[in-house]
Amino acid sequence: MGEAKVGSRRVLTRDTFPELFRALVESGYEVVGPTVRDGAIVYDRLRSVEELPIGWTDRQEAGTYRLERRNDRALFGYNVGPFTWKKFLFPSRERLWTAVRKEGSFTVETEPTNGPPVAFFGLRACELAGLVVTDRVFAGGPVADPGYSGRRSRVFRIAVQCGQAGGTCFCVSMGTGPAVRGGADLVLTEILSPGPHRFLLEVGSEAGADVVDRLPGPSVAAGSEERARAEEIVEATANSMGRRMETHGIRELLRDNLEHPRWEIVAARCLSCTNCTMVCPTCFCSAQEEVPELDGEKVERWRRWDSCFNLAFTELHGASVRKSGLSRYRQWMTHKLGTWHDQFGTSGCVGCGRCITWCPVGIDLTEEVAAIRASPGAIAPKAGGKT
Amino acid sequence: MPAPRRPRLAVWKFASCDGCQLSVLDCEDELLALADRVEIANFREASSAVLDGPYDLSLVEGSITTAEDARRIKEVRAESRVLVTIGACATAGGIQSLRNFANVDEFRRIVYARPEYIEILATSTPIADHVPVDFELRGCPISKAQLLEVIAAFLQDRTPNTPNESVCIECKRRGNVCVVVAKGTPCLGPVTQAGCGAICPAFHRGCYGCFGPQGSPNIPSILEHLAARGMSGPEVRRVFRTFNSLAPAFRTAGDRAGAEER
Predict the structure, then answer these.
(1) Is B41 helix (H, G, I), strand (E, B) or coil?
(2) What span, in angstroms and rounded, lies between the C-alpha atoms of A290 and A261?
(3) Chain A residues within an 8 Å CB radius of B195
(4) Global confidence as pTM
(5) Does B172 touch chain A (CB under 8 A)?
(6) Could you give the ipTM of this predicted complex?
(7) Which domains does chain B have, with CATH numbers?
(8) Residue A4: its pLDDT value, please?
(9) Is the CA virtual torsion A19, A24, A28, A29 positive or negative?
């Protein structure tokens, strides 16, 4: 038995920080985490701590994202990028099974659900909340998705408490961050000052304790100094959110305002391009398609990411149910913030702000909610009959 | 039981660059399987051996730019059970339809030493303007995977699966970082139909709209967005007037962007 336990703390200096990475690799994990590619911070396979976005930050506003140099060498001095951890659990394209014709009948081969254990290195609080949401969607019902469940069971979660808020962040409004409250195997807080560059490491699970026991050197209990500093950092982040959204009674607000004139205003801007749903950590829709060979002897069933903004998403017997951009935007937002509660018992929104940043025309759902809240009960003149 | 007769395939060329026909030959790995399932009866790009019609499936490349073409497409239609247009020329007029927005006589005088030898219509028009078309496959050029899907669908008597969603969704599935948001690059991806696999954004370029308009393009919004990102009216008109300038939504975009400048 090792020394570390759930709740144990350690302090890693910048020099000893790579030991954590090494301990993960030695424990058998493939490590994926943030790294710089093509002008953004993306999640990808990491081979060392040096591949983290060291000294980079991101400036985010509605419809714009820019990487900038920091004036320090922070490892986690940025917020969330265009991709989410969902891509590792729910791949954008995935073969589900293959059927082969055989003697007047056919056989079905399913896909294997085994794979290597993976460490998600650098999950933010909002992203941990996103995992809880997708766990409920894919694995919380009577039938669990085998691919998702298999991959999810092999994930080790190293969370990072945010040391700054991004321009489109609103986790405080959604009650999901920036403090990490459970759901992680290990929790890091980066301390840049005062004193030397160091990290508070807190153990959140038995699996986390096993990794910490692999760290070299004596198990020095973290000083209360680092713990207090971590709280100050998270508090400062909470106080500098780029956005906020009033969530009180939001389910009823949206339900009672389906004919509000604001929907037409936002629909005039919405490109139905699907970007908001693609970058959302909780959007889970997919299309399934048969890919047959020319000779019709073999067919593969594939699942690909789909979006409620696609015209074909609601196509039934040759026509779409939600033909207008208005009905599609309204469907997305009322589901994400309202009817998700009815379906899954929580909000579908974790306040990460990706849909605001990555909308090409900068549509901001916090602004849309505020506009409806400002004049509840208003009815668009052309209301009714719009599908 | 005797083997059923293989359906007869024909590939026809009108005003075009041959790039889409070459996509058929580009199906290298699948070409033998294809030849097993269909009889390639008339495909001059591949073989000078030509069998007479009628044909079960005709793939038509190119647009109608001469009186002779306009007559010939009617013949092709008459001897084809199913007629599928392949590519932007056949489906939306192609790059040569830029003549529709200009004076073709002027071009003729400037380009040719003996303009009187050139017999040409004033416009380049899609095949569907002349004869009924059973299916239109988009792209400049078409995607090989989508072409095989269309042929498979024909053989299996079902509707082809060629989603009319945006290029953005392909970008995200592929893992591209959005060039609009991260770099401020003008991009037609949000209004363009998927199918190419988001090639240009994967190489840090904006989308050129090669597959024509997506299922529900918001033209007023993209025009406002491109203007806000610093493009002038003529610049915006130019990006919509390329390979798919006659596709209705792109035509509207080109017309509106131009109108603002006049």
Answers:
(1) strand
(2) 41
(3) none
(4) 0.94
(5) yes
(6) 0.94
(7) 8-155 (3.40.50.700), 167-261 (no CATH)
(8) 86
(9) negative
